[in-house]
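Batch queue: ligand-bound targets. Current item pairs a single chain with adenosine-5'-triphosphate. No template structures supplied; prediction is de novo from sequence plus SMILES. Inputs echoed for audit trail.
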Amino acid sequence: MKIVLENVVKEFNTFRAVRGVSLEIGSGELVALLGPSGSGKTTILRMVAGLEFADQGAIYFGDEDATNIPVRERGVGFVFQHYALFPHMTVGENIAFGMKVSKKARSKQEITDRVNDLLRLVKLEGLNDRFPSQISGGQKQRVALARALAVDPKVLLLDEPFGALDANVRHDLRRWLREIHDELGITTLFVTHDQEEALDLADRVVILDQGAIVQEGTPEQVCREPNSAFVMKFLGDTNRIAATAVNGVVDLPGARLTAPGVVDGPVDILARPGDLSWSATGEGIPVSVIRVIDRPEGRRFLVRTENGETLELDVPVSTRAASGDRGFVQVLQGNAYPRS
Ligand SMILES: Nc1ncnc2c1ncn2[C@@H]1O[C@H](COP(=O)(O)OP(=O)(O)OP(=O)(O)O)[C@@H](O)[C@H]1O
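Prediction returned. Tokens below.
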């Protein structure tokens, strides 16, 4: 089921939380709405769900104008951050709940079979008779997904479903959700403020700021071609280096970057920690080391320039330095944006 949002606006009193959002989610696509807190992600999801109504614009489910269709008739399944499982019902009863209250009549046997199928799908066989208080947070979110899937939704809406879980569980659930999505192919809209989660999971990422879409594209497009300093900074660690553009070129100590289309004048070069290199002697921006940080994935130097700017750069684990050591940083790659 394709979903289309056409110039959707939502105001709370006089505050415009969503400012004319247009978006198409293809049938079977998994799209992530990604943005900082307050950027309007949840409000958009709630309008798609029918829990909130747009003040302007339209929302289509397939070819049908769903803008004013109430939540019960939209055929959507939800999973929220806070599990909202019914505490007095077992896992099996929680999953069966939607089927029991649905307009579509199902026999007891049909419901039991469907619950067992779903428990297998979410890899929770055998937990049928436990209560929510007797399972882990990650397991609760699997039950919540099984419950959402039980009524064969046309659309799945997930609002920070793994937000309350620890990093390892989140990581596993992310992979698992993608597998389930690939198996079932349900059109899915996923809200998160976690860049890594969005990039890992989604076919397409829609980046929001202050109620408006600032960029959308595949993870590759938004990572490799961020269209603004905001998007580049929001998607991952960046260094900012003050410089000047002249005739589409920015000269830095030991490096020349092209900045096509950038107006002459002061610019900020934004560069990822992996786009800077270190040399103890040689050319580049003179710096002194503040700290060396070791992580499983590699080593990072925090350094300070003579202007007092702090830079972070990833170095090979064989590169050694101590706090106070002097050296040089070369900018191998970076994007130039007019100085903000
Ligand atoms: N019912 C409401 N009444 C008044 N203002 C609201 C209401 N719901 C949301 N807002 C405001 O609308 C803006 C967008 O909120 P929304 O929850 O959509 O953002 P979000 O991107 O999902 O944020 P978060 O990541 O913190 O959940 C915020 O400024 C919020 O305070």
